[in-house]
Specification:
Strand content: 5-15%
Distance between the termini: 38 Å
Helix content: 55-70%
CATH topology of one domain: Ferritin
CATH architecture of one domain: Up-down Bundle
Radius of gyration: 16 Å
CATH class of one domain: Mainly Alpha
Order of helices and strands: HHHHEEE
Strand order of the largest sheet: 2-1-3
Bound molecules: fe (ii) ion
CATH superfamily of one domain: Ferritin, core subunit, four-helix bundle
Number of strands: 3
Length: 185
């Protein structure tokens, strides 16, 4: 079954955006490690994995898609120090939460593309948490101290849900995956 063209374009765009976010956060993790912010580095790596999950989910919806296309996905700026990188992370996540995914979800729903709608929704829910975690980490880095991580950063490999604590939740609050699915960083 082929996918409606507009939803398909949004899936491609979301796939590109998540792919770039994944790579950008891995670069930011390296910078944070060099600067001695080991927990912030771990946070970037965990969230990079969540963005991989989102990219994979969006890409998966394009299963039967075969045509030549070019996708451009912008990035707000090149990398800086960890404080700047967290700011870029916050900007990117807030864009996804406030602009991109709410609109994408509506279009997919309007076009009756339920599977794409779900993929966008899962990403939307996780990005809200990412924005919040980056904001928290930035308040510490701006005082030249590492983000105080108690426990580990847990990622749901189905939907990208991100959770900080000693143990993951019993069930993923976004997709209902059981606790033992979670991957920790
Ligand atoms: Fe995110
Ligand atoms: Fe999940």
């Amino acid at each position: 079954m082929s996918i409606r063209p507009t939803t398909k374009d949004l899936l491609l765009n979301a796939f590109a955006g998540e792919s770039m976010a994944h790579m950008r956060y891995l670069v930011f993790a390296d910078v944070a490690e060099r600067e001695g912010y080991l927990n912030v580095s771990r946070l970037f790596k965990a969230i990079a994995f969540a963005e991989f999950i989102h990219a994979r989910n969006h890409y998966d919806r394009l299963k039967n898609y075969r045509e030549e296309s070019k996708v451009a996905s912008g990035t707000p700026a090149g990398p800086g120090d960890t404080s700047k990188n967290l700011e870029l992370g916050i900007m990117g996540e807030e864009y996804e939460v406030n602009e991109m995914y709410p609109a994408y979800i509506e279009v997919a729903r309007f076009q009756g593309e339920k599977s794409a709608e779900l993929s966008f929704k899962w990403a939307y829910e996780a990005e809200k948490i990412h924005a919040q975690l980056y904001r928290e980490a930035k308040t510490h880095v701006d005082r030249k101290s590492d983000w105080p991580l108690k426990g580990r950063v847990w990622i749901c490999p189905i939907c990208g849900h991100t959770y900080v604590g000693e143990e993951p939740p019993e069930k993923c609050p976004i997709c209902n995956a059981p606790k033992d699915k979670y991957i920790s960083f």
